Amino acid sequence: MPRNRKPLPPPAHWPRALAHRAAQTGWRLLREAGAVTAHAHGRLRFGAIGEGTRLAFPQGTIFNERWIRLGAHCIIAEQVTLTAGMLPLGPGETLGPDPVLSLGDGVVLGRGSHVVADAPVTIGDEAFLGPYVYVTSTNHSYDDPHQPVGKQWPRRAPVTIGAGSWIGTGAVILPGAHLGRNVVVAAGSVVRGTVPDQAVVAGAPARVVRRWDEATGWQPPLRTPAPVPLPRGASAAQLAALASLDAEQLAGLERLAERERD
Hints:
Elements: H1 14-34, E1 36-37, E2 48-49, E3 54-55, E4 62-63, E5 68-70, E6 75-76, E7 81-84, E8 101-103, E9 108-109, E10 114-117, E11 121-123, E12 128-129, E13 134-136, E14 138-139, E15 155-156, E16 159-161, E17 166-167, E18 172-173, E19 178-179, E20 184-185, E21 190-191, E22 194-195, E23 199-203, E24 206-213, E25 217-219, H2 236-243, H3 247-261
Parallel strand pairs: 2-5, 3-6, 4-7, 5-8, 6-9, 7-10, 8-11, 9-12, 10-13, 11-16, 12-17, 13-18, 16-19, 17-20, 18-21, 19-22, 20-23
Antiparallel strand pairs: 1-3, 14-15, 23-24, 24-25
């Protein structure tokens, strides 16, 4: 496929074009240099950071990282906040021997998300959190009606998010929430309490709107068929050729596949 070559700008625009290219190149290099990995962690000293894990630059607020453990092959996007405890600790202060915030292997935290762990927060393997998700083990209390809410001592409770779960954009996971395996949280939901395995929750407060049953499948049933994954080893040229087929040709391929299965 021929490359799409853009025409050169008029000479009067060359200084701006050069400045634009320099800024884009510089920002790309800065993002590469500022990323945090197991082998390039700069000032950050995590309790653990697994092989292949990457925190994109610029990072959000990160403190007390000695009590934060990150598994292998995690993707942590830009401006993600990760905190353990309520405030940064001084020399000699400690949060104890155990991690406060733990991420399993293959966890994804979307851009602008916050994970605030004053009490233990555990996110299981291959849980995916979309952009701007807020997970906290601390909530403001308002027991005293005569004091500002922000000055009252907060309530804390551990949070767990089960392996394989998907948390939609803008969701809020509150203290004491315990999500099972492969839970789906709809975008913008506010979750508290216990959510069983293989459930879909939505709303504020969130409630279960769909569950998996071994005998009958998803209840209520899914409205659309399951997507068909791409065949293993398929090349870009093969996929492009498939995309160019019309309905009659695709139907012929389906009939051929059925005969081969029989």
